[in-house]
Automatic annotation (TrEMBL):
Organism whose genome encodes this protein: Magnetovibrio blakemorei
The protein's name: Flagellar assembly protein FliO
Swiss-Prot/TrEMBL keywords: Bacterial flagellum, Cell membrane, Membrane, Transmembrane, Transmembrane helix
Main location per the UniProt record: other
GO biological process, one term: bacterial-type flagellum organization
GO terms for cellular component: bacterial-type flagellum basal body; plasma membrane
Family that this chain belongs to: Belongs to the FliO/MopB family.
Keyword Zinc assigned: no
Subcellular location(s) of the protein: Bacterial flagellum basal body; Cell membrane
Segments traversing the membrane: 6-27
Length: 124
């Protein structure tokens, strides 16, 4: 093979890759691409990770907010356990000190962590 054959091969490869790229852009533009669901950005999101609390080396408690409801889940190495669902979403105070007069305003994850500290780690 001579040098012109290599050049033709490179241009043909670039042309085919360009066609694939253009086809991908066109398919995504008309909603036919792989990621057809729109990803919401900023404050418009419905699903949010509120808090993560490590329990031990293998497990952690996570608090997930969907719309205006929070769910407490334990994630382990081989399993997931739903602890509590339907928790009304609380508004986070702007300052680190709770604005309510009640000094025991705690999140469900903090209450769960204190329960684990008092009773010991749950057995698996």
């Amino acid at each position: 093979m001579d040098f012109t054959s290599y050049i033709r091969f490179v241009f043909a490869l670039l042309f085919v890759l360009g066609l694939i790229g253009v086809l991908t852009v066109v398919l995504r533009r008309y909603g036919l691409g792989i990621a057809s669901a729109q990803i919401r950005k900023g404050q418009d999101r419905r699903l949010r990770l509120v808090e993560v609390l490590p329990i031990d080396g293998k497990r952690r408690a996570i608090l997930i907010r969907r719309d205006d409801v929070e769910h407490l889940v334990i994630l382990g190495a081989e399993s997931e356990t739903l602890i509590e669902t339907g928790i009304p979403a609380s508004q986070m105070p702007s300052s680190p000190v709770p604005s309510s007069a009640e000094p025991s305003a705690r999140t469900p994850a903090q209450s769960f962590a204190e329960t684990l500290d008092q009773a010991g780690s749950p057995k698996t």
